[in-house]
Specification:
Elements lengths: L4 E4 L4 E2 L2 E2 L4 E7 L2 E6 L1 E2 L5 H6 L2 E9 L10 E6 L7 E2 L5 E6 L6 E8 L2 E8 L3 E3 L4
Parallel strand pairs: 5-13
Antiparallel strand pairs: 1-7, 2-3, 4-5, 6-7, 7-10, 8-9, 8-11, 11-12
Length: 132
Amino acid sequence: MTDPTLTPKSSGTYWGTSVADIQTSLSASGGKITGTLKYYDDATKALVQDWGEGYFIAVGFSNYSSGLTYANCEVGIVPTQGAGLVHLDSDQDAVFKVTSPDQKIIAIQTDANGHKRATYWSLKDITYAPKA
């Protein structure tokens, strides 16, 4: 079984917020995500209304191996702040709030045909832009 591909989003809108408003120049390679997360505090947008102001990261998942679909994947930031890992839905995208410097990885857990696997993407090389 091969791991799903994680790709940082470069465009799009989530909960009324443009990806350009929360991140810039993100890339993923070799188990590491690099680039810059922007501090986001627009209280008129659902992202902040639902999760509070702070740093967010938007990523997509694709390229599932045989027997695996988005429905077999759970994703989240570890350590979690209470939500735990959640199942991907049909858009196969996720937006996570990075609430602490201790949250160092995005986890992907898959379960296909009884074969379970976990993969991790490091966030330790992310730059956090200061609040504007």
